[in-house]
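WARN no homologs supplied; continuing
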Amino acid sequence: MRIAILAHEKFPDRAKTALGVLRYGDYDVAAVLDRAAAGDRVGDHVGDVQDAPIVEGMADLEPDAVDALLIGIAPIGGGFDESWRDDVRTALERGCDVIAGLHYFLEEDEEFAELAAENGCELWDVRNPPADLTVSQGLAKEVDAEVVLTVGTDCSVGKMTTTMELVRDAREAGYDAAAIPTGQTGIMIEGWGNPIDRVVSDFTAGAVEEMILEKGDEHDYLFVEGQGSIVHPAYSAVTCGILHGSMPDRLVLCHEAGKEVIHGYESFSLPSLERYVDLYEGLAEPVNEARVVAGALNTRTVDDEEAAREAVEAYESELGVPATDVIRFDTDGVLEAILE
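OK structure emitted
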C-alpha cells in the first residue's frame, strides 16, 4: 500500500507513530506531511528509516499518489487537531483510506463518515477495540512460548522500537519470535492487535491475555510491546494491565538517556533505576515471577557516538544486566540474556 503520513510540526522527535511506521511498517511511503519541515526529506532528519519527501499537505501530492493517509502523531489524550481536517478531507475526496491511532474516532466524525461513504473509502480507527473482550482468566503463563515484555521509565522512551528490533534480530538469529502489539503504532505495523489504552479497565489484562493465548503455542518467543510506565501519573493503569495480563517470564527495562522527569508531567521526577526494577519485579511476582534481564537505553539526544556508548555502559552497570541502544548498537548481548 502506498501511503502519506501526517506528522504536522512534530516530525521527527514527537512523531513516534510516523517513525515506527517508516522503520518497520510494510508500506510504501510516498510522503510525510509536516508544515514545519516542508521541502526537506525524511533522510535529512532520520537516517535509518525509509526515506521520503516532506511536503506541506495532501494538496501538494498528485491526486493518485497514495492509497491511504496515515495519521502519524498521537498527542497526549489522543485528540484530533482541527488543523489536520483539510488533509483528511482531501484524502477522502481523492478516494484514499485513512488510518488513525487516536482516541477520537474518525468514523464517528459526521463529515469524514459521509466523505468515506461517498468515495468508497475505509476509515480504520486503530484504537477502537473489539467488542467481545472480557476479564483475564490468568492463563497466559500456561502457553508454550517464553514471554518477554518491554517496560519503561516513562512514555516514549523506546518500548515499541525495542520490541520490534528484538523480534527482528531474534528471527535473524534463527529463533521463532513474534511481536504482540498493544498500541496504535505496533498495530499499524503488524496489522493486528488490541489497543490496550482504549480498553475498559476491567478488560485490560484480558485483552493482552487473549493475544498471548492466540500466539503462544505458535511461537517460541513472544515479545510484548509495553506501554506507559508503572509510575506515570496518567498511564500506570495500562502498564499494570499489560504486566499482569501477559504474565511475562522476562522484562527489558527501557529508558532515555538524560531523562529525569516525566514528559508532560515535569513536576514528577523519575525514581532511581533500582526503584523501577523493584517496582516491576515486585508487581509481577504475585501473578508470575519475572526479572529484568536486560536494558535498552534510547540515546537519541546524545550526538557523540562515544558519549552514547559510555551512557549505555553506565546504564548497564547500574542495572547489573546487559544493555544496549537497539538502534545505535547491536543487540547481541541483550538477546543472549533474553534467549538463554
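The chain has ten helices and 14 strands.
OK
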